[in-house]
Amino acid sequence: MEIWKLSEKVSKISDVIPYYFFSLILSCISFSVFIIVFSGEPSWLQLMPVIIYSFYVVIPYLLFAVPLQIIFNKRPRKFNVFYLLIYTVLSFVAVFLFNVMLFRVEPTYLVENQIYYGFSFAAAAIYWFWDSVFLQKKKLKYPSSSANRVS
After folding, report:
1. From the CB of residue 135, how many other CB atoms can be counted at a distance below 10 Å?
2. Which of 13, 64, 87, 142 gives 94 a disulfide partner, CB atoms 3.0 to 4.6 angstroms apart?
3. How many CB atoms lie within 10 A of CB 145?
4. Are the C-beta atoms of 99 and 110 separated by less than 8 Å?
């Protein structure tokens, strides 16, 4: 690929990159708060657990959700249920792999545990929500002006 073509592609998405960042950061913080509140930890009001969980959560989001988000942004649709379904399926895979590889959880125990399903759906729903808020904007169609028409 030629350098000028690459720079054109980067310049096209450069105005959208902050929205990807906001969506990712808010999703990580929201999901971290969700994990802390529903795991029953008494220190959920403190800042440090939110920061620590956010660092763990950002890895699966970056590997699984952000590439999917880029694909979805080609055909933006706010709060599309089909997008939520795809995020949910990918979330089951991401949470499964993340827990098995990082925490060495037995796969059969993980699949039998209700928390796995709750966390997987919550991770998908939270990311889908922030994605819809920041990036899935409907493209405006401007009517053709009469000055552009040839009589």
Report:
1. 18
2. 64
3. 7
4. yes
Tell me the whole-structure pTM to 2 decimals: 0.80
| More confident: 1 or 151 | 1
Tokens 């657990």 found at: 49
- DSSP collapsed to 3 states, the chain: CCHHHHHHHHHHHCCCHHHHHHHHHHHHHHHHHHHHHHHCCCCCCCHHHHHHHHHHHHHHHHHHHHHHHHHHCCCCCCCCHHHHHHHHHHHHHHHHHHHHHHCCCCHHHHHHCHHHHHHHHHHHHHHHHHHHHHCCCCCCCCCCCCCCCCC
CB 20 within 8 A of CB 37: no
Q: What is the mean pLDDT of residues 104-125?
A: 91
Q: Give 74's pLDDT tier (boundaries 50, 70, 90).
A: confident
Determine the Cα–Cα distance for residues 48 and 54; give it in Å rounded to an integer. Answer: 10
